[in-house]
UniProtKB/TrEMBL annotation:
Record-annotated VWFA domain positions: 162-339
One Pfam family, short name: vWF_A
The name this protein goes by in its record: Ca-activated chloride channel family protein
SUPFAM superfamilies: vWA-like
Highest rank taxon of the organism: Bacteria
Key words, A-Z: Signal
Amino acid sequence: MRRLWSATIPAALLLTAFTACSGSGSDGGSDTAVSDYAGEEALEASPGAADVDYGETYDFNETVDPAEDPESTFAVDVDTASYDFARRSLEDGELPPADQVRPEEFVNYFDPGYTEPEGNGFAVYTESAPLPEWYSSGDATQMMRVGLQTRSEPDSERADVNLTFVIDVSGSMEEDDRIGVVRESLHTLIDGLRPDDAVAIVTYESESDVLQEMTEVGDGEELHDAVDDLEAGGSTNMLAGLEDGYELAGEAYDDDKDNRVILLSDGEANVGLTEHDEMLEDLGEDIAEGTTLLTVGVGDSYNQQLLEQLADNGDGWAVYFATESEAERVFSERLTSTLGVTARDAKIQVTFDPEYVAEYRLIGFENRAIEDEEFEDDSVDGGEVGPGHSVTALYALTLKEDTGDGAVVDVRWQDPETEEIGTASAVLDTGAVTDPANRTFEVAVVAAAFAELLRGSAEFDVEELLPAARDLAETTEDPDVDELAELIGIASDLGLGA
């Protein structure tokens, strides 16, 4: 096997945040308590070792007294795979595994309709509202949301791209015709590319194979023919595929293009190194700096944690689809935001004033936490965000009687073109409460509560959550919110919280 082009590995962590225009905004060591690592030992086995836990299991974030630690710091994340997979599980009549549910990705799925900034970087927003009666979280009385929004761009304005596809063609990809869904999704994506974009294709089973060297799209015929040749069978050596994929990406790296490796897999690695930290350590110095990673989970069952952690630590994000229509949403309707990068290493730090805030609890982002003192350390990786992306973080707050500037939100990122550091901030006035809450704010709260219920929280009653979701579906007339209410109803019928 050829050696990879040597560079430096980025170790990105991502956040999801939501934004609203009430409150304050601008353009422009976390104390999250988690449990110990809970993954099992990786297996070196033949196909079918799908029960292995490749990820980490986290407890809920603890409630924090800002007099003891006023700062909450984490990296930005735009993943939605957790919600997509939960939807598929519920539609198949099963509750999703609790350790594959991430509240921030549930919230991130829904479009908040935020106002975009005029320039590059982020618009930052804050807002607070009273907690609904059905929401129980200790002594908390208010919910705060922190929102980020990047500027969208038309496809005609995006940079040309070099895409290296690393495609799982192991035996498990034959199940439910996963490989067929991959073929159709790639045809869709290639049809949406421009002639000057370029694509390479690596496949892997027990070994990896370079199916297509980096080739300009042109009329797409040569690439479509290569995609038609994809067939599944064999065991799963994901690391071998990533090694060859990053090798091709490094050899074809172009400073004037966006360079991305796209891994499509059900995540069932079972040969060689099979855990994300082992894979990233092995790749180490061989990942080209500036090459981002998109992981695409495929199929009715897949190892979400493995693919999410690879994306988070490989300067990218994770998505999921199980059908051709879901693939079209990622690779056609949202192609520009899927391929582009607006901000690198984006981080958020929220500083609470103990004069006005008695307690706070961050909902989700347990595996996105970074040390408080690392916020301004630009050698510490954050999350990558594309054009037109919105990000939301929710905090349950217990407020004191006096009101004032209870929280300052600072955002820090690197411009991918100039490599300059950008900053933006916003302030939350605890006296400026939105009552009733904006409907998109309420959707975020319902989505987050649903996720925490699926993770095993005893603080919510699904029979109280369901009417709230149905009311939102009726008043927003948003098909995504209507689907959320339907999923909560399915979960209730399956015994959620019983």
